[in-house]
Specification:
The protein has 352 residues and is of the alpha/beta class. The protein folds into two domains: 114 residues, Rhodanese-like domain (Oxidized Rhodanese, domain 1, 3-Layer(aba) Sandwich); 212 residues, Rossmann fold (3-Layer(aba) Sandwich). The chain has 14 helices and twelve strands. The termini are far apart.
Length: 352
């Protein structure tokens, strides 16, 4: 068994398992890719130990906390680590590479496993994520798909990916469709840190000698903010604009957002967020359609009065190369049309 030595981030791949020794709420907020959560203290225990530390000092906090840590480690040894062979090599981290991961590493090494501790813990990894985004984003060979809401930009990204193109699906990572109605029902958005970790992993995997297709985004996708280096690269990259008729876009939106018709009251509440941006009587009419499940007139007016003016303002101001964008005409946005469009976009993006 090798000596106990702090492990650098570029050595993570040498280990069989990455163990996050932090509490479940810290793990849920963000964690290293592929890590499993084996808390040394759970959220409530961590609160108790923190209170003891403030009120009675370090010794009392360690005495009580030590018993909790021992009980949790015993449980992990009996359950999650029970079937691990003698050759198992786990890498353990906590917030800063301190007591929590240190105590777990000591126990695992006493058993006989070659357990090691990640130097600097999650905090060091977080710095690595930010540095990766800052280093890779300015080099990305992005091709930006533009077009007002309903132009099937996300579906086109998926069609391009199916044809072997490289894509960066920011809305997929953010679990949000980017518009006022973009919340994905029943699925929460990741934390900002979780989004950035997953983004950094995707950026690292890209081949920078080949185009990367992405759709135009504003700074925020729901509650997620795009990191500035990526946003700046997006706004300075060449654009392809999808020119689809209002009829084709409306038909696409009614398919893509069909689930909104299942909960009229919730849709009406969401439309209330547009107060101050639209006249009160307009919003009242939209909310009436929402409650009646009348999505067709609702989306037709949302396009004309909300989405399209918003697109014209934001794109012309933000996307520096939109005026020189190549246009692709789309008479329809059904599945077969999207496959043909993806082929055409891939073709024209390879022409210098």
């Amino acid at each position: 068994m090798s000596h106990n030595r702090p492990v650098a981030i570029d050595q993570i791949g040498e280990f069989h398992t990455v163990i996050d020794a932090r509490s479940p709420s810290e793990f849920a907020l963000d964690h290293l890719p592929g890590a499993v959560n084996c808390p040394v203290l759970d959220d409530e225990e961590r609160r108790i130990v923190g209170t003891l530390y403030k009120q009675q000092g370090a010794f009392e906090a360690r005495r009580i906390g030590g018993a909790m840590v021992a009980a949790n480690l015993a449980r992990h040894l009996r359950d999650q680590f029970a079937d691990r062979p003698a050759t198992w090599r786990p890498l353990v981290y906590c917030w800063r590479g301190g007591l929590r991961s240190g105590s777990m590493v000591q126990w695992l090494r006493l058993v006989g496993w070659d357990a090691q501790q990640l130097a600097g813990g999650y905090k060091r990894f977080r710095g690595h994520v930010i540095a990766q985004i800052e280093a890779i984003a300015p080099q990305l060979p992005l091709h930006v798909l533009c077009g007002p809401t309903g132009s099937a930009k996300t579906a086109l990204l998926h069609a391009l990916a199916a044809q072997g193109a490289q894509v960066l699906d920011l809305e997929g990572l953010a679990v949000h469709k980017g518009s006022v109605l973009g919340k994905v029902p029943g699925v929460a958005q990741p934390s900002q840190k979780r989004f950035e970790t997953q983004l950094a992993m995707q950026l690292q995997a890209l081949d920078l000698s080949r185009p990367v297709f992405v759709e135009s985004e504003s700074r925020k996708i729901g509650q997620i903010s795009l990191p500035t280096p990526l946003l700046e690269r997006l706004r300075a990259s060449p654009c392809t604009e999808i020119a689809a008729s209002p009829e084709a876009r409306l038909a696409y939106l009614l398919r893509d957002y069909a689930y909104l018709g299942e909960d009229g009251p919730r849709l009406a509440d969401t439309l209330g967020l547009l107060h101050g941006l639209q006249a009160n009587e307009t919003i009242a009419r939209w909310q009436g359609w929402a409650l009646a499940g009348a999505l067709s007139p609702l989306f037709a007016e949302l396009m004309a009065l909300h989405y399209d003016p918003l697109y014209a303002r934001s794109q012309n101001g933000n996307y520096l190369r939109l005026k020189e964008a190549r246009q692709v005409e789309a008479a329809s946005l059904d599945e077969a049309a999207l496959v043909a469009l993806a082929t055409e976009i891939a073709r024209i993006s390879s022409i210098p």
